[in-house]
Specification:
By secondary structure, this protein is an alpha+beta fold. The protein folds into 2 domains: 100 residues, Jelly Rolls (Sandwich), CATH 2.60.120.10; 30 residues. The protein is built from 6 helices and 8 strands; from the N terminus they run αββββββαββαααα. The longest helix is centred in the C-terminal third of the chain and has 31 residues. The protein starts with 6 loop residues before the first helix and ends with a helix.
Length: 168
Amino acid sequence: MNVTIPRELAAKIVWFCSRRNVQTGEIIIDKNSSGRDIYIISRGQFRVHDDSAGEDFVLAMLRRGDIFGEMAFLDGSNRSASVSSTCNGSLLVMGEKEFSTMMIKDPETAVQFLRFLAGVVSGRLRVANDALLQVAFGEGEKINQEYSHLKEAIAEMHAAVRIELEGT
């Protein structure tokens, strides 16, 4: 799910970002690396990918106005995927220091930005949830057989939640 930052918001936060030019094939983020910067694409195309299963799986292709790095920016966890450029491009980069400056100098914009990021993260979570449900409970006998262990795990989680709720 690609989400483009609204122009009005981008115009406000650009003053708190640094610009980074990138070359074709440059790795911007390595999966599992640390870092709290968030990136807004101002020019170029970027590939979000994960090769942890032994094959380079493309999760998304991002373009001008799209953002990436939002999860680590928000929660400080390690990066969940790798991102590399597919052509020469340019990024706006915001780190913790720049965000803190925005919080002090323009708190209204900082809140708008956080709300936007919350919408991005929750939208991506909704897509992931839908995909998981489709795999677990989707139609097609082959899918049902291959992922029966997922269906069982989901059923067990539902049962545990019900037990927990009934106990409170």
